[in-house]
Amino acid sequence: MPPEIVTTITEQKALPYACVDGGELLLDLYLPDWVEEPPLVIWIHGGAWQFGSRADPPLGPVAAGYALASVDFRQAGTAGFPAQIHDIRAAIRFLRAQARALGFRADRFAIWGASSGGHLAALAGVSRGGAELEGRVGEHPGEDSSVQAVIDFFGPADLLTILDQSTPHGLDVRVPALERLLGGALDEPGVRRRARLASPVHHVHAGAPPLLILHGVQDKQVPINQSIELDLAYRQLGLDSRLVFLPDAGHMDGVYYDTGCMEIVMDFLDRVLKAEPAA
Q1: Ramachandran class of 130: left when φ > 0, alpha when ψ lies in -120 to 50, beta otherwise
Q2: How far apart are CA 152 and CA 8, in angstroms?
Q3: Which of 89, 121, 137, 184 has the most neighbouring CB atoms within 10 Å?
């Protein structure tokens, strides 16, 4: 008989990846024991930039043979933008520096998030970095903070246009969340510039990595036009982007993590992260 296939998952919880403002920033790592040096998916949780945690990430990629790191970051109630993206880039640099020791590939990273986490994942993945978005958090300043794939579940993409596109319900949620993140209303001095800096659509460039977006047509919190804008910015440069509309889905519906959507995600990850580069 063939040897039994090992399908256990190793969990490493509360790994400190940086220290900032007198406290540790932590991540949880999940490794499929049956895969040697798998690609890595970095999960960014949602919660209007002020709630949520790294606990209970979607583990579909781990079951499919990917490592997954779920990352905490300073939330808007503690520190305003760009602290969140500085922390996430510090996590990417830490994970790349420690890839061999932790047991995954350093050259095949995807970043994935939902709602405000989708926004942060897209911003970290699409932008080139630079001093304003890279920051000085963490102990690995020389490491590369880029990723090779981006998955955005219904995240804001242009903070300059989102309010004009929003439903009354969306405005009730989005206005206070944006003001907390950006430090004021969009018509206040300096805030509009921060909103542009925080908008993935304004950072799309010719070298941006492949992008997958899923967005529910019935989403009343994040307008579907946000995802259309980001997909269009990619397509105008001839970049690899796929936007999937879910006709009956609202915001944060469970359908995003059902078999059908997870198959879309895994097909994308397999195509982008598992294919070897051409010789």
Answers
A1: left
A2: 28
A3: 121
